[in-house]
Description:
The protein is mostly helical. Helix content is 75%, strand content 0%. The chain is built from 9 helices and no strands. The chain has helices at residues 2-40, 49-66, 70-73, 80-106, 122-145, 149-161, 167-186, 190-207, 210-213. The longest helix has 39 residues, at 2-40.
Amino acid sequence: MQRVEIEITTQTIGRGALACWEIVSVMVSCLIAEWFVLSFFGRTRWLVAVPVLLALVVMFASHRTYGEDLRQLGFRVDNFFAALRMLILPTLVAVVVVFLVGWLLSRGNFAPRPLRLRFLFVPLWALFQQYALQGYINRRAQILFGTGVKSIALVALIFGLVHLPNPVLSGLTFLGGLIWAATYQRQPNLFALALSHAIATLAVALTIPSEITNDLRVGFKYFG
């Protein structure tokens, strides 16, 4: 009996160590892309594909190892409205607060910035981020800490950290990360999460003065 318990404990530690390594490896790839490639290779931005592809290789290999399919990851529609119901109120509150902050900071000259062509890609970018954050990191965090406060906080903390050194963006992504991670653990639907993420991102980009958000820059680019 004791031997069986020892083997189970060893397997648990092994799974936890592997999950930790998987999270760190993807974080490192993301930080390399943000702090190194995008900051110092502006004319050859395509090089960002190298760390991104490396991260994707690790993620896809991990999904295969765990036997995770697209539905398990959250690429599904059966629970879209269930997830959306959980997200409507916090998303609306976030948008209202962002608009109020933008209005207050404008000192009476509030005028949302015009839409740009690149904003059309925000929903796709939001979906990719939510896949990496929830479909991968959240699921690995649950291996480490189970569902609940600890794994949710870890996901939010990681999301905030990869947006450093921008204090405004790091704070906002941490708060958003808490809501999205908690929603994913109850209703794993990446499409609903991406919709909420895209709406929040556009609200910030269009209403908060660029001198406050520094045009949403992260990494060394934050310093100009």
